Amino acid sequence: MYRLLSMGGSTKLQQEAIVEANAKFLERFAKSTKELKAKLSAPIPPVSEDFKEFEGFFVRPKETFQLKTKSKNRNKQRMEFVRHVFHVFPVPVFMAQAWETHVHFSTKIYEEQKTASKGWVASHLFKTKVDYRLWYICMATGGSFYKEYGKALFTKKESHIFLNCQHEDLTIDQAIVYAIAYAESENMGKALRIAKSKINTFQLTEFWREVVRFFARQEPDSKEEIDDIVDYIRYKQQETPEFTIIGKGHTLKSLKEKVEHWHQDLRRLKLIGDSVWEGIPVNDKEYSKKNFDGTIDYWKFTQIKDAKSLQKEGNAMRHCVFGYKRQCIAGECSIWSVTFNENKKLTVEVRGRYAFHVAQVRGLANRIARPDEKDLVKRWARDVGFQY
């Protein structure tokens, strides 16, 4: 009887605890619902409020603007307003990205100081903040893009190609690289491969513009081949800032041989140190799939945050990922190991400091990811908020 009474008392206490927890949950739910309703019912400012800083460039009064789209998408509303107040001349479609919300409107390029005795002085660079929205306004209102903005980055021929680029799937940064590559090669396929390589994520110093032209004069097989060589160049420049391939008689073949030797050296490297880094604030993620026979397969994405794990990844996958250690420590990129049922399958490179994107996906011995693997990485990127 004593045991039964004890169990009854325990059950009563549990029920009271459940009732109390439910009451607290309902209270929090009601409060959050009230706050959400208040937020949703708050008046949305007119789209013209997003453009106050550019009113001096309007070619038509904002008062005559009438929103025609029924979409509640703010970006679509903004572009409709842009076309009303700025457009006199057509603008490349990809330039619309300059007005999208939640993206970085500005990038940085370098203007090198040129002297008669030393040529381009790589150690004395002047940072210039470039706002792509101003580029857009200049194009739309009929200004001289080359004189106002382009000559810091392009030749006149390159500027003309950029302004007339019809590849809507390119980002603005990719279109810049495309213009430089196409002006040199006059080969659209080659220029697109170079444009979509990781060069478009760099600050385009004169050195990197010449690297783009170098690839344009060669015959790279793929974007991935370009990325491999670019990784090698970046690594060598970190070791020796004066390192360059320009004017050294390099060919694609000779650089590929150097890249292979570099991969071998990295795999043999033993003194890896105990470096650790914070990585990016994104949790590891796992996916499962049930098979017809009842077994379950697991894919897992794990961020690498220390030098030893990075070295193990490179050794196991037989590629050069350890060369990214300094960039990981500096916060320039993060490396993710992808396993299938606890067996290593892919290595993923993610770049960015605020808005992240998947820059590279490689399998064993640097092989390119298969279509099904790419689909999985795309799904993961979408789930964690990365661009692919």
Show the helix and strand layout.
Layout: H1 2-41, H2 74-86, E1 106-115, E2 119-131, H3 132-141, H4 145-148, H5 156-163, H6 172-185, H7 188-195, H8 206-217, H9 223-239, H10 252-268, E3 285-290, E4 296-304, H11 307-317, H12 325-329, E5 333-340, E6 343-351, E7 357-362, H13 371-384
Antiparallel strand pairs: 1-2, 3-4, 4-5, 5-6, 6-7
What does this structure look like?
The protein has 388 residues and is α+β, with helices and mostly antiparallel strands. It folds into three domains: 47-87, no CATH class; 106-268, no CATH class; 285-384, no CATH class. The chain contains 13 helices and seven strands. Strand 5 (333-340) and strand 6 (343-351) form a beta hairpin. The chain starts with a helix and ends with a helix.
Number of domains: 3
How many individual β-strands?
7
Report, as a whole number of angstroms, the end-to-end distance.
66 Å
What is the 3D form? flat
Compute the number of helices.
13
Topology as a string of helices (H) and strands (E): HHEEHHHHHHHHEEHHEEEH
How are the strands of the biggest sheet laid out side by side?
A: 3-4-5-6-7
Indicate the structural class: alpha+beta
Radius of gyration: 27 Å
